[in-house]
Amino acid sequence: MGIVTTLWGVGVGPGDPELITLKGWRRLQAAPVVAFPAGVQGRMGVAEQIIAPHLKPQQVRLPLEFPYVLDENQLQQAWHIAAECVYDYLQQGLDVVFVSEGDVSFYSTFTYLGSAVQQLDPTVPLGIIPGICSPLAAAAVLGLPLTCGGDRLAILPAMYHADELTQAWGWADVLVLMKVRAVYPQVWQWLQTHNLLAQAAVVIWATTPQQQVYYPLTRWPALELPYFSLLLVWKYASPFRSDKKMGHFTI
Ligand SMILES: C[S@@+](CC[C@H](N)C(=O)[O-])C[C@H]1O[C@@H](n2cnc3c(N)ncnc32)[C@H](O)[C@@H]1O
Protein backbone atom coordinates (compact mmCIF):
# COMPACT_ATOMS: atom_id res chain seq x y z
CA MET A 1 0.00 0.00 0.00
CA GLY A 2 1.22 3.51 -0.78
CA ILE A 3 1.68 6.47 1.52
CA VAL A 4 -1.51 7.87 3.07
CA THR A 5 -0.07 11.06 4.50
CA THR A 6 -0.05 14.17 2.33
CA LEU A 7 2.50 16.76 1.33
CA TRP A 8 0.63 20.07 1.35
CA GLY A 9 1.75 23.17 -0.48
CA VAL A 10 0.25 26.24 1.16
CA GLY A 11 0.62 29.73 -0.32
CA VAL A 12 0.94 32.13 2.61
CA GLY A 13 0.59 35.40 0.72
CA PRO A 14 2.95 38.28 -0.07
CA GLY A 15 4.08 39.25 3.45
CA ASP A 16 1.32 40.50 5.72
CA PRO A 17 0.53 37.50 7.99
CA GLU A 18 -3.17 38.43 7.79
CA LEU A 19 -3.14 37.74 4.04
CA ILE A 20 -3.06 33.98 4.47
CA THR A 21 -6.34 32.23 3.54
CA LEU A 22 -8.54 30.68 6.18
CA LYS A 23 -8.07 27.30 4.54
CA GLY A 24 -4.28 27.72 4.51
CA TRP A 25 -4.28 28.86 8.13
CA ARG A 26 -6.38 25.84 9.21
CA ARG A 27 -4.11 23.44 7.34
CA LEU A 28 -1.07 25.08 8.91
CA GLN A 29 -2.55 24.83 12.41
CA ALA A 30 -3.25 21.12 11.90
CA ALA A 31 0.20 20.26 10.53
CA PRO A 32 2.58 18.21 12.69
CA VAL A 33 5.47 19.27 10.44
CA VAL A 34 5.89 22.65 8.79
CA ALA A 35 8.58 23.00 6.11
CA PHE A 36 9.82 26.19 4.44
CA PRO A 37 12.81 27.46 2.47
CA ALA A 38 15.68 28.09 4.92
CA GLY A 39 16.75 31.71 5.29
CA VAL A 40 20.24 32.87 4.39
CA GLN A 41 23.01 33.77 6.86
CA GLY A 42 21.03 32.58 9.87
CA ARG A 43 18.09 34.88 9.15
CA MET A 44 14.51 33.60 8.88
CA GLY A 45 13.25 33.01 5.35
CA VAL A 46 10.34 35.11 4.12
CA ALA A 47 7.69 32.35 4.25
CA GLU A 48 8.88 31.40 7.73
CA GLN A 49 8.56 35.03 8.89
CA ILE A 50 5.02 35.20 7.53
CA ILE A 51 3.85 32.10 9.39
CA ALA A 52 5.89 32.55 12.59
CA PRO A 53 2.95 34.21 14.44
CA HIS A 54 0.70 31.25 13.52
CA LEU A 55 2.99 28.37 14.63
CA LYS A 56 2.61 26.33 17.82
CA PRO A 57 5.61 25.19 19.89
CA GLN A 58 4.87 21.47 19.33
CA GLN A 59 5.01 21.73 15.54
CA VAL A 60 8.22 20.48 13.94
CA ARG A 61 9.89 23.27 11.94
CA LEU A 62 11.73 21.93 8.92
CA PRO A 63 13.94 24.46 7.09
CA LEU A 64 14.93 23.17 3.64
CA GLU A 65 17.99 24.44 1.77
CA PHE A 66 17.36 25.73 -1.76
CA PRO A 67 20.44 27.51 -3.09
CA TYR A 68 20.01 30.70 -5.15
CA VAL A 69 21.90 29.36 -8.17
CA LEU A 70 21.11 28.67 -11.81
CA ASP A 71 23.15 25.47 -12.05
CA GLU A 72 20.63 22.71 -12.86
CA ASN A 73 22.70 19.92 -11.21
CA GLN A 74 23.04 21.83 -7.94
CA LEU A 75 19.33 22.59 -7.95
CA GLN A 76 18.34 18.98 -8.69
CA GLN A 77 20.56 17.83 -5.85
CA ALA A 78 19.01 20.35 -3.41
CA TRP A 79 15.46 19.36 -4.40
CA HIS A 80 16.35 15.69 -3.96
CA ILE A 81 17.85 16.23 -0.47
CA ALA A 82 14.85 18.34 0.57
CA ALA A 83 12.47 15.67 -0.77
CA GLU A 84 14.21 12.99 1.30
CA CYS A 85 13.83 15.08 4.49
CA VAL A 86 10.11 15.55 3.78
CA TYR A 87 9.61 11.91 2.82
CA ASP A 88 11.08 10.77 6.16
CA TYR A 89 8.21 12.47 7.99
CA LEU A 90 5.56 11.27 5.51
CA GLN A 91 6.73 7.70 6.06
CA GLN A 92 6.29 8.18 9.82
CA GLY A 93 2.60 8.92 9.15
CA LEU A 94 2.96 12.70 9.57
CA ASP A 95 1.52 15.21 7.11
CA VAL A 96 3.96 17.88 5.99
CA VAL A 97 2.89 21.41 5.08
CA PHE A 98 5.38 23.29 2.89
CA VAL A 99 4.73 27.02 2.97
CA SER A 100 5.57 29.25 0.07
CA GLU A 101 5.60 33.05 -0.04
CA GLY A 102 2.78 34.32 -2.28
CA ASP A 103 1.10 31.54 -4.18
CA VAL A 104 2.36 28.00 -4.25
CA SER A 105 1.86 27.45 -7.99
CA PHE A 106 3.30 30.79 -9.10
CA TYR A 107 7.10 30.60 -9.54
CA SER A 108 7.31 28.60 -6.33
CA THR A 109 9.84 26.07 -5.04
CA PHE A 110 6.92 23.84 -4.11
CA THR A 111 6.61 22.76 -7.75
CA TYR A 112 10.10 21.25 -7.64
CA LEU A 113 9.77 19.85 -4.13
CA GLY A 114 6.46 18.14 -4.92
CA SER A 115 7.87 16.62 -8.07
CA ALA A 116 11.05 15.42 -6.28
CA VAL A 117 8.96 13.76 -3.54
CA GLN A 118 6.81 12.04 -6.15
CA GLN A 119 9.97 10.80 -7.85
CA LEU A 120 10.86 9.08 -4.56
CA ASP A 121 7.34 7.72 -4.23
CA PRO A 122 4.65 8.36 -6.87
CA THR A 123 1.90 7.38 -4.39
CA VAL A 124 2.46 10.46 -2.17
CA PRO A 125 -0.63 12.67 -2.48
CA LEU A 126 -0.01 16.38 -3.01
CA GLY A 127 -2.52 18.91 -1.68
CA ILE A 128 -2.41 22.52 -2.85
CA ILE A 129 -3.90 25.57 -1.15
CA PRO A 130 -3.43 28.76 -3.16
CA GLY A 131 -2.30 32.11 -1.78
CA ILE A 132 -2.32 35.76 -2.83
CA CYS A 133 0.50 36.23 -5.33
CA SER A 134 2.71 39.33 -5.51
CA PRO A 135 1.25 41.02 -8.65
CA LEU A 136 -2.19 41.05 -7.00
CA ALA A 137 -0.71 42.37 -3.76
CA ALA A 138 1.19 45.10 -5.64
CA ALA A 139 -1.95 46.25 -7.46
CA ALA A 140 -3.80 46.41 -4.13
CA VAL A 141 -0.97 48.44 -2.57
CA LEU A 142 -1.11 50.89 -5.48
CA GLY A 143 -4.88 51.09 -5.21
CA LEU A 144 -5.18 50.19 -8.91
CA PRO A 145 -6.98 47.41 -10.74
CA LEU A 146 -4.37 45.05 -12.16
CA THR A 147 -6.59 44.40 -15.18
CA CYS A 148 -10.08 45.37 -16.23
CA GLY A 149 -12.38 44.87 -19.19
CA GLY A 150 -10.58 42.99 -21.92
CA ASP A 151 -7.04 43.79 -20.69
CA ARG A 152 -4.45 41.23 -21.66
CA LEU A 153 -1.92 40.62 -18.90
CA ALA A 154 1.69 39.50 -19.45
CA ILE A 155 3.88 38.38 -16.57
CA LEU A 156 7.57 37.98 -17.32
CA PRO A 157 9.94 36.17 -14.97
CA ALA A 158 13.63 36.95 -14.59
CA MET A 159 16.32 37.34 -17.27
CA TYR A 160 14.38 39.18 -19.92
CA HIS A 161 15.93 41.40 -22.57
CA ALA A 162 14.55 44.56 -24.16
CA ASP A 163 13.42 42.44 -27.15
CA GLU A 164 11.25 40.31 -24.90
CA LEU A 165 9.67 43.42 -23.41
CA THR A 166 8.90 44.81 -26.86
CA GLN A 167 7.44 41.49 -27.96
CA ALA A 168 5.19 41.14 -24.89
CA TRP A 169 4.16 44.79 -25.15
CA GLY A 170 3.02 44.09 -28.71
CA TRP A 171 0.02 42.15 -27.40
CA ALA A 172 -0.31 42.87 -23.66
CA ASP A 173 -2.14 45.82 -22.09
CA VAL A 174 -0.60 45.29 -18.66
CA LEU A 175 2.92 44.01 -18.03
CA VAL A 176 4.31 42.69 -14.75
CA LEU A 177 8.05 42.13 -14.41
CA MET A 178 9.09 39.77 -11.63
CA LYS A 179 12.67 39.73 -10.26
CA VAL A 180 13.27 43.13 -11.81
CA ARG A 181 16.22 44.03 -9.59
CA ALA A 182 19.04 42.96 -11.92
CA VAL A 183 17.66 44.65 -15.04
CA TYR A 184 15.97 47.76 -13.65
CA PRO A 185 18.19 50.37 -15.43
CA GLN A 186 17.62 48.69 -18.82
CA VAL A 187 13.89 48.41 -18.18
CA TRP A 188 13.74 52.09 -17.19
CA GLN A 189 15.47 53.02 -20.48
CA TRP A 190 12.99 50.87 -22.39
CA LEU A 191 10.07 52.52 -20.61
CA GLN A 192 11.51 55.95 -21.41
CA THR A 193 11.99 55.07 -25.09
CA HIS A 194 8.37 53.92 -25.28
CA ASN A 195 7.08 56.91 -23.31
CA LEU A 196 5.66 54.67 -20.59
CA LEU A 197 7.31 55.98 -17.41
CA ALA A 198 4.16 57.82 -16.33
CA GLN A 199 2.19 54.56 -16.38
CA ALA A 200 4.75 52.40 -14.57
CA ALA A 201 5.28 51.59 -10.90
CA VAL A 202 7.71 49.63 -8.74
CA VAL A 203 6.51 47.98 -5.55
CA ILE A 204 9.07 46.71 -3.04
CA TRP A 205 8.20 44.25 -0.26
CA ALA A 206 4.46 44.63 -0.91
CA THR A 207 2.26 44.37 2.21
CA THR A 208 5.21 44.16 4.65
CA PRO A 209 6.53 46.81 7.05
CA GLN A 210 9.42 47.44 4.57
CA GLN A 211 7.00 48.19 1.73
CA GLN A 212 7.95 50.99 -0.68
CA VAL A 213 6.23 52.27 -3.79
CA TYR A 214 7.67 54.30 -6.67
CA TYR A 215 4.95 55.62 -8.96
CA PRO A 216 5.20 56.94 -11.57
CA LEU A 217 8.78 56.02 -12.50
CA THR A 218 9.62 59.26 -14.31
CA ARG A 219 11.99 60.47 -11.57
CA TRP A 220 13.57 57.10 -10.72
CA PRO A 221 16.11 55.96 -13.36
CA ALA A 222 18.51 54.34 -10.88
CA LEU A 223 16.72 52.58 -8.05
CA GLU A 224 18.66 50.08 -5.92
CA LEU A 225 16.07 47.35 -5.64
CA PRO A 226 15.93 44.33 -3.34
CA TYR A 227 15.00 40.86 -4.63
CA PHE A 228 11.39 41.33 -3.50
CA SER A 229 10.52 44.02 -6.03
CA LEU A 230 8.29 44.01 -9.03
CA LEU A 231 7.45 46.45 -11.77
CA LEU A 232 4.04 47.02 -13.33
CA VAL A 233 3.16 49.01 -16.44
CA TRP A 234 -0.25 49.78 -17.92
CA LYS A 235 -1.00 50.64 -21.54
CA TYR A 236 -4.21 52.57 -20.88
CA ALA A 237 -5.17 54.94 -18.08
CA SER A 238 -7.63 53.30 -15.71
CA PRO A 239 -10.72 55.12 -14.45
CA PHE A 240 -9.74 54.10 -10.91
CA ARG A 241 -6.19 55.40 -11.03
CA SER A 242 -5.82 58.03 -8.32
CA ASP A 243 -3.26 60.82 -8.08
CA LYS A 244 -3.04 60.58 -4.32
CA LYS A 245 -1.11 57.34 -4.71
CA MET A 246 1.66 58.96 -6.78
CA GLY A 247 5.24 59.54 -5.60
CA HIS A 248 7.49 57.49 -3.34
CA PHE A 249 5.84 56.30 -0.19
CA THR A 250 6.07 53.68 2.49
CA ILE A 251 3.36 52.34 4.75
C1 LIG B 1 10.43 33.26 -7.01
S1 LIG B 1 9.27 34.55 -7.26
C2 LIG B 1 8.05 34.08 -6.09
C3 LIG B 1 6.68 34.52 -6.48
C4 LIG B 1 5.66 34.19 -5.38
N1 LIG B 1 5.43 32.76 -5.31
C5 LIG B 1 4.34 34.90 -5.61
O1 LIG B 1 3.30 34.24 -5.55
O2 LIG B 1 4.34 36.11 -5.82
C6 LIG B 1 10.08 35.88 -6.45
C7 LIG B 1 9.71 37.22 -7.06
O3 LIG B 1 8.36 37.52 -6.73
C8 LIG B 1 8.21 38.93 -6.55
N2 LIG B 1 7.67 39.14 -5.20
C9 LIG B 1 7.24 38.18 -4.37
N3 LIG B 1 6.73 38.72 -3.25
C10 LIG B 1 6.82 40.06 -3.37
C11 LIG B 1 6.45 41.16 -2.54
N4 LIG B 1 5.89 40.98 -1.34
N5 LIG B 1 6.70 42.40 -3.00
C12 LIG B 1 7.27 42.61 -4.20
N6 LIG B 1 7.66 41.61 -5.02
C13 LIG B 1 7.42 40.34 -4.62
C14 LIG B 1 9.58 39.56 -6.76
O4 LIG B 1 9.64 40.00 -8.09
C15 LIG B 1 10.50 38.38 -6.52
O5 LIG B 1 11.74 38.56 -7.21
Brief summary:
With 251 residues, this protein is of the alpha/beta class.
Which helices and strands appear, and what pairs or packs with what?
Elements: E1 7-11, H1 22-30, E2 33-37, H2 46-51, E3 60-64, H3 72-91, E4 96-100, H4 110-120, E5 126-129, H5 134-142, E6 153-156, H6 162-171, E7 174-177, H7 184-193, E8 200-204, E9 212-215, E10 229-234, E11 247-250
Parallel strand pairs: 1-4, 1-5, 2-3, 2-4, 6-7
Antiparallel strand pairs: 7-10, 8-9, 8-10, 9-11
Helix pairs in contact: 3-4
Would you kindly provide a written description of the structure presented here, covering whatever features stand out?
By secondary structure, the protein is of the alpha/beta class. It has two domains: 123 residues, 3-Layer(aba) Sandwich (Cobalt-precorrin-4 Transmethylase, domain 1); 117 residues, Tetrapyrrole methylase, C-terminal domain (Methyltransferase, Cobalt-precorrin-4 Transmethylase, Domain 2). The protein contains seven helices and eleven strands. Strands 6-7-10-8-9-11 form a six-stranded mixed sheet, sandwiched between helices. It has a five-stranded parallel sheet with strand order 3-2-4-1-5, with helices on both faces. 36% of the residues are buried. The mean pLDDT is 92. Bound molecules: S-adenosylmethionine (SAM). The site of S-adenosylmethionine has 22 residues, from helix 5 and strand 10. The site of S-adenosylmethionine (SAM) has 22 residues, from helix 5 and strand 10. Keywords: Cobalamin biosynthesis, Methyltransferase, S-adenosyl-L-methionine, Transferase. Belongs to the precorrin methyltransferase family. Pathway: Cofactor biosynthesis; adenosylcobalamin biosynthesis. GO terms for molecular function: precorrin-2 C20-methyltransferase activity. This is Precorrin-2 C(20)-methyltransferase.
